[in-house]
Amino acid sequence: MRKMKIFGVILCFTLLFLSACGSNENTTIKLGEVTRSLFYAPQYVAIEKGFFEEEGLDVELQTLWGGDKTMTGLLSDGIDVALVGSETSIYVYAQDSNDYAVNFAQLTQTDGTFLVAKEAHSDFKWEDLKGSNFLGQRKGGMPQMVGEFVLKQHGIDPHNDLSLHQNIDFANIPGAFLSGDYEYVQLFEPTASVMEKEGNGHVIASFGEESGHVPYTVFMAKQSYLVDNKENIEKFTRAIYKAQQWVQETDSAEIAETIQSYFEDVDLDILTSSIERYKSQGSFATDPILDEEEWNNLTNIIEEAGEIPDGEISYEELVNTEIAEEVINQ
């Protein structure tokens, strides 16, 4: 009988211990990325190196394949945080949304596309594009707007000096380039390097180098979510900052090995060279702060593309730097 009492006491303490542990469970954040891209390497590093876990967060990552789907997921509470082009927050704000999306942490700070040609160019000049058959990106999306901005900087009217095609879905652009009679295309890594390795194309220029710093891909959340979950967003941003610093200090080969599971169909050497390409042109932001100069460059690019909405595009309304500043100053 005495043994049964002792067992009961032990069981009671065990249940109390498990209950106490349960109260310290990690907070779940549902994160939606606009596409699966090597361009987002620091995000995958934050997951694989356990930086989110260190902050007490369980991040559930899903790929939503498109800016419109990503923003729909965010505004309908299907996801808590979106990784998407910051131009989407401008479009939502222009629709007089009561609970609009706010950019709180920057991940990439240049365009991530490269100009790929079917034929080799030993001495490429931008004017070579005039009169060519060019496979473009989606109208109103950042790749296309940056592409047009760069072409105009080189005296090329993308809608009159080229035969510009924009009727292919993002995921099908590489295949369409290979099978069609297009001479040039804009591609992200590692697709550009894979095409080059297989002898199907040649990387001849970088739109990221040409366009300068822009808040190209940013983490954003609804205004209400930032207010109600400030502590968790701060933890999230701290984990991203740790990853950004780790990527900055780590060689491309180790980064590639760390995130290889996200790109199982891509050879490790291609991942490594692609990451090095992005690192060498400063595409990965080294901290999460989205500054006003970058924002102004973004709005200039959107305006040049004729996609600027009516009304003021307020940096103060659409960008929150307080969280990122707190994180990097701790």
Automatic annotation (TrEMBL):
Keywords: Signal
Main location class: periplasm
Range of residues in the leader sequence: 1-22
Name assigned to this protein: ABC transporter substrate-binding protein
Organism: Ornithinibacillus hominis
Assigned protein family: Belongs to the bacterial solute-binding protein SsuA/TauA family.
Taxonomy, superkingdom: Bacteria
The keyword Kinase belongs to this UniProt entry's keyword annotation: no
Compartment(s): Periplasm
Cellular compartments per GO CC: periplasmic space
